[in-house]
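Lab notebook, bench 4. The sequencing result for the construct came back, and we need a structural model before the next group meeting so we can plan mutations. Quick request posted to the team channel:

Model the 3D structure of this chain.
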Amino acid sequence: MNIKHNKEDVLKKGMELFRLNGYHNTGTNEILKETGISRGSFYNFFIDKDDFGIQVLDYYGVWSTNYMEEVLSDKRLNPKQRLIHLFDIFVQGYKRDNYKWSCLLVGMTQELGQIHPLFTDACHRNFESFVNVFQVCIEEGQKSGVISKKQEARGLTLTILSMYNGALVLMKSGMHHEPLEAFQKQLELILTP
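Done. Here's the predicted structure in token form:
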């Protein structure tokens, strides 16, 4: 049987598996089984599991960045409302899925960020993409007066993303909704002029 596989479908499944189980807890055999791809086809697409992991990270980064740009450019809301709305969407998604998922970028950074130089670069590159998207919205909000100017835009962006990513770590530690709800309250306060 000659089955053609779509590389994007394989990356999507890898994204799912890594978000659910982590990188180290997802073996190549599990990837092959879950994607239905043969070992030979897998190695036609990817050099090894690390190459697959980095390509999954980059796929996730582009997918997430595009989604965030779409939500944060909705002119029906002001920039502060857009930011709050985006994080509401994220939090509702975690609740809907019973907190079993995590942000792939946060998880991979924790597992591999300072251990494996290629993963360090991929994590940094993708986080920087996220920062840029948020910073544009924050700058717009600061110019229009709906977002606090107590901190410059990049610093405020890094503060918000640090708080959110910390809340995700605590969420996964078994605290579930409490850290996310605390983050949402602080987000409103930190953005308000």
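Residues 48-191 form a domain with the Tetracycline Repressor; domain 2 fold (CATH 1.10.357.10).
Will bring this to the meeting.
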